[in-house]
Amino acid sequence: MELILDRLTKQYKNKIAVDRVSAVLRPGVYGLLGANGAGKTTLLRMICGILKPTGGTVSLDGMDAGEEGYRARLGYLPQDFGYYPEFTGMDFLLYLAALKGLSKAQARRRAAELLRLVSLSEAANKKIRAYSGGMKQRLGIAQALLNDPKLLVLDEPTAGLDPKERVRFRNLIASLGADRIVLLSTHIVSDVEHIAGRILVMKDGQILQNGSLEEIIGTIEGKVFECVAEAETAKRLMETCPVINLRREGNGVFLRLICGETPCAGAVKVPASLEDLYLYYFSEMREHE
Amino acid sequence: MNNFWTLVGFEFQKMRKRRVVIPALFACLGVVAVMAWTSVSGTSFWHKAGSGLSQYEAMKRDKEVILSRRGEITGELVSQAIRANEEMISDDSHYLINEYGRHLKSDAYIQYALPYEAVVRLINTVYEEDSDWLSTGAMGMISVNPDRAIDHLTPEQGQSFDRDFKEFAMSVVMGQEGLSAEEVEKNAALISRIETPLYNDYFGGYQAYINDSKVLALTALFVILILLAPLFSGEYEDKTDQLLLCARNGRETLCRAKIAAALMVSLGVSLLTMGAGGLCFLMIFGFEGGAVSIQVVNPGCTYPITLFQACLIHLGSVVAAAVLFGAFTAFLSARARRGTASAVAAGTMAVVLPLFIWVPLKSSRSLYNLLQFFPANSVTFGFDLHFFRLFGTLIEPYKWVGAVSLLLAAGFFALAARGFQRRQA
After folding, report:
1. pLDDT tens-digit series, residues B22-38
2. Structural domains of chain A, with CATH
3. Distance (Å, rounded) from C-alpha B351 to C-alpha B325?
4. What ipTM was estimated for this complex?
5. Residue A214 contacts B, CB cutoff 8 Å
């Protein structure tokens, strides 16, 4: 099974939101990382067939994104998850199950199963407008799984979930990635770090990095330092290097930063993390490079 | 197929759960109830004998009198009506005469005129010499000349009524500006098919339906607008469009389901409103009158049909108008960029504005014909004297407007579906 993005482009008047993105995705969990306005949601919408590309193609095992067969294999949780406030959770899932082509019996069975999975069984017959933000998000995840999709696209799926729910969600997604393509867009670096087998870093409509965690972190390996500096030095370093972490320690300032060379006396090289990479790519310092 | 009907069911569930729906349906039934009630509410001074009767009681008494003369409007009946009128106007004791004028007393009217009420109205219209005094409204045509034609007739003249009323109908056709020679000929053929003598009966129920049918129809249209305006735009407002459009059945099948639901709503609301209204009026006034010739209400009408047939044809016109309006609303909903409210506003304009636009047939036939497709005009009784020409054949207006309305509806539904399916997230 392959999802092929071939020079996918979306242009709005004077802005190119997605710029000739090409990639081949095979079964596994993919994390799509990028700052606001990077083009992640635009890319995901084109993959789901709800936004027409200006150029390029999207295909899943040879099927174009506009075809019914493609949609039959797709599960999508949008960033702005919409629902019918007066529907109950169960009604909503039954409706979407019908839209996804499940029979009534299959729909009831699957809806009950998924509501149990996302811990919404007790709220199944309550109106969605009475749900909390986290409950609505869990309902959104449940509807995306109704048709047992081979391509699962999740746009900011852990928004509104508390830490316990986020951990449960990570475990769920990790278990799903074995025989399907899961494409997960998020700002929460730890989600991607823990569950994504491959990471796509996106900026200004382009994919900057596409690889495993180790591969992409390798680009800044050896460039992450920690040090305690005087206030003057700290101020100078903050103006010239991306600073990941900063706190007062005694008479000095503790800094974790990314720098091409040892930034100051006493600075220690430390292993890089995905968060370091994210901030490295999307800090204001990089904007000026 | 199972999914299709399941999706249709969910469309109704969405409609039912919107807050405005139940109040709108109740308002519709409320309008029907109010119209039925006001048709017989209040006090009648007509049968006053020291105190006023209720309108309902007065109606029942009038009906009893009129039913005594139900049947064919033969020359003999017309002569009787003229004779009774002569007797009535010749005796001053039948009038209240004061400084304000000469006013017929109610008991005199009940005795001499009421039994022949419809016939007298017919006589005054058919024998009116000055066509400027002829007034048309709803579906009727009457003479409003205070110098009534019947006052100048002799009973013998009544014997040739069948011939005279057909001549009158033909004179109305000849006096209608803008008709082609073929249209005049077709109207003449229709007039020759009118069965004579005409049939008369008490038709209060049908009269009430005819008088209030436009209000009932427009009420139905507004309810359709409220129910269908969120058909597509509601998905945009609820932000569910993205989920729907990426689902397997979320394009073609879903759009077909929405269109089916819209069709069912348009049919159901129009039939319910008109049916409930008609039934109320008939239950109040009685079911008599269906067999009355339409010429008793409008002697200028050339169609050889009864009141029941006319009302059925009108119901068909209303249903066709409702389907077209439902489709148009669906189209507005799919294209609504500013939400359901904009679709409602545009739909309201489509209903209300044409009420204030009048283009005479003789000024511009094309514009006149175009305006007939707007709901405010297409829900009237369409027994006009002009026809539509299609491949050399003349077609009656109600058939033409009805058929084209359904074709236009299909077009609007298709555009609505396309608009939704092509929506970009």
Report:
1. 898 888 889 988 988 88
2. 3-217 (3.40.50.300), 224-288 (no CATH)
3. 9
4. 0.86
5. no
